[in-house]
UniProtKB/TrEMBL annotation:
Gene3D superfamilies (alphabetical): Glycerate kinase, domain 1, Glycerate kinase, domain 2
InterPro entries: Glyc_kinase_flavodox-like_fold (IPR018193), Glycerate_kinase (IPR004381), Glycerate_kinase_RE-like (IPR018197), Glycerate_kinase_sf (IPR036129)
Transmembrane portions of the chain: none
Signal peptide: none
Family stated for the protein in its record: Belongs to the glycerate kinase type-1 family.
Identification of the protein by name: Glycerate kinase
Top-level taxon of the source organism: Bacteria
UniProt feature coiled coil, ranges: none
NCBIfam families assigned to the protein according to its UniProt record, in alphabetical order: glycerate kinase (TIGR00045)
Pfam families the UniProt entry points to: Gly_kinase
A Gene Ontology molecular function term of the record: glycerate kinase activity
Length: 378
């Protein structure tokens, strides 16, 4: 290609060490050390999980801070991003594992109430399209907390609101969604995630994901039953669509927030990386590139199922652009990489075998990896 090639850096965060913007910065610096004439465009990307708002801000959205109810019920500071009348709301900011104290989980009582408050804040700021990124949640409440914050009345047999969390949904007696904020009827909601599980059953939100949020086997059974009861009560109030949507792809995303969004907010479910590539102007940036660099902290089997690098590589391959990747660790074969559209990966563990050192010194190691990449591909 020679040293006048044009490179598009479209990588996700390295979780626990570098944001997507920092990844792009270090890769660009490493490339320039070897090929100073290279034209570089940085486009930090995300797939709906934690880091999504940061990627949107790096892509030109304006950050807004708001105090909301955290997953444990205490106040937390969360951010959303706004550009024109489009808001990016990252569930992890309000109801995510990132908002829990270290080694603390609340699988039965963690709530999505703050996610509803974050959506309200975006509506107050003029948003009429809300992109709801649903990765990294600490909750399995079927989105009940979110709906309550948005104006739904979810009542127990005593006529009082059921306590927050997934476990208490077992005591739900009636549901009234007529009080939902009226602006939602005029708002387009896009559910952006990489989870296509149903709400309940063996592949549902509780059996598949609640153990990652601290749930025991008994908790999982209790949560799955509570979510099933929640669907029954909502179907009584809203008709058979409530039951049908519990089986829809994405209903089980983020502990069931997907279900609530599909049912009550009339959301459209799309793979998160596709949504954000469109929002951030990836197609136009791709058109001007000779080489695409993507990546994330770990390139593994999960990467192939809707994660950002796979989305970037797929779009680049469709446009006939070569793709290489950087990562903290690599757990994919060369064949799997090629099948995903990635020519070669440059893991930091090739430079430093100790994972703890890789995390602590990710920036200089990534710059070294980028120098290698530039020498081999530019």
């Amino acid at each position: 290609m020679g040293n006048t090639g044009r490179v598009l850096i479209a990588a996700d965060k390295f979780k626990g060490s570098l944001t997507a913007a920092q990844v792009a910065e270090e890769v660009a610096a490493g490339i320039r050390e070897v090929r100073p004439e290279t034209g570089i465009t940085a486009l930090p990307v995300a797939d709906g999980g934690d880091g999504t708002v940061a990627a949107a801000v790096a892509g030109g959205f304006t950050p807004h801070r708001v105090e909301v109810t955290g997953p444990l019920g205490s106040p937390v500071t969360a951010r959303y991003a706004l550009r024109g009348d489009t808001a990016v709301v990252e569930m992890a900011q309000s109801s995510g594992l990132m908002q829990l104290p270290p080694d603390t989980f609340a699988p039965l009582t963690a709530t999505t109430y703050g996610t509803g408050e974050l959506i309200l804040a975006a509506l107050d700021a003029g948003a009429r399209t809300v992109v709801l990124g649903v990765g990294g949640s600490a909750t399995t409440d079927g989105g009940a907390g979110m709906l309550a914050a948005l104006g739904a009345r979810l009542l127990g047999t005593d006529g009082r609101p059921v306590p927050l969390g997934g476990g208490p949904l077992a005591t739900l007696a009636t549901a009234d969604l007529s009080g939902l904020d009226g602006r939602l009827a005029e708002t387009r909601v896009v559910l952006a995630g990489d989870v296509d599980n149903p709400l309940t059953g063996p592949k549902g939100a509780a059996p598949v994901y609640a153990p990652q949020k601290g749930a025991t086997a008994d908790d999982v059974q209790m949560l799955d039953a509570a979510l099933g009861h929640y669907v029954t009560v909502l179907a009584r109030a809203l008709g058979p669509r409530a039951r049908e949507l519990s089986h829809a792809p994405g209903a089980g995303a983020a502990g069931g927030v997907g279900y609530a969004a599909l049912l009550a907010l009339h959301a459209v479910f799309r793979p998160g990386i596709e949504v954000f590539l469109d929002l951030l102007g990836f197609p136009a940036a791709l058109a001007g590139a000779d080489l695409v660099v993507t990546g994330e902290g770990s390139l593994d089997e999960q990467t192939l199922h809707g994660k950002a690098p796979a989305g970037v590589a797929g779009a680049a391959r469709a446009a006939g652009k070569p793709v290489v990747a950087v990562c903290g660790r690599l757990a994919l074969s060369a064949e799997s990489l090629r099948a995903a559209g990635i020519q070669r990966a440059y893991p930091l563990t090739d430079l430093e075998p100790d994972p703890a050192v890789c995390i602590a010194h990710a920036a200089p190691l990534l710059r070294r990896a980028a120098r290698q990449l530039a020498e081999n591909h530019l």
